[in-house]
Amino acid sequence: MFSPLSLKKHILFAVFAATLLSSCGGTDNAAPAEQQSASEIATDSVAADDLKPQKVKVKFSTPDEMLAYMNRSADSARFASGVLPRMVETAPSYADSILNSAYERFLVVDKSKMRVFVFDSCGVQLVNYGIAVGKGAGNKQQKGDCRTPEGYFTAEGIYDSTKWLYTDDNGVTSPVKGQFGPRYIRLRSARRSFPVGIHGTCAPWSIGGRRSHGCIRLTNENIMALVEYAEPGMPIIVLPSERDQKANKKDGKLSLYFVTCDTIPDAHPYFPPESSFLPQEPVDSTAVETPDVTEQLPAEAATEATSEPTEPTEVTDSPALPAPSEE
Q1: How far is CA 26 from CA 20, 23, 234, 266, in A?
Q2: 234-248 burial, b for 16+ CB within 10 Å, e for fewer?
Q3: Which end of the chain is more exposed for a tag (fewer CB within 10 A), N or C?
């Protein structure tokens, strides 16, 4: 038999337990996360820093220590067949960051090959896609210089850009939606902030050339494929071409570089011929850098090809998201 005091304690405990279970269980109308459709899962939310994966950091004092670390690893064969040993040779700070990254993959935008590569954590290439980059040569210095920034970045977030609008250099906003394509991966740098990203395009014929105002373009089909490998917070490296390095030398600071692959990847339908990879002499930044294709396009498409607005002023599905100012 329970004493009156003991019985009172048991009753209070039962009430507390029932309340706790009720508060954790949710409502009958709440659908489990695994039952949500793809359209219901947020693609336009910036990742919280406290959600990024964690990994025990390894301190490397020299490049040789990085190579020794890879040689001792259980994945030594994969490391040896990947890009990381090359990265250690010419861009050791990048290699240090990748080896200490908790993410399963990283992206490399190579302006010399006009490709974006997806590598696994051992540096083994998984896939690659053709891109278009900024009209201007060299590392980005300021807004409006039409340069694609170079260096080590992370993915700030992946956004649904379907309804974003462009505004051109004269402040005129285009009413045409979809000019950023269906997805936008925003780049974040710890040292400086330029609202530049990797996104789709309504001008697929521009892929393979220097046609943007600083962003990295893919075809809409390929940006949708790329985001399947991407996740907020993952490393993104942007490498210069020889032409970019010539401009960087004039600016007084070269960008780090490593060889992403020995051969030019398989041609994309909008990818330029091999001759386009030959060293190029500096040219007037106002000159047309790719063949004029407007005569080969329908009238509506030709108008879009000659008018490249730069700023979306509306983010319909993400009112709190600052709009990018480069395209």
Answers
A1: 11, 6, 32, 51
A2: bbbbbbbbebbbbbb
A3: N
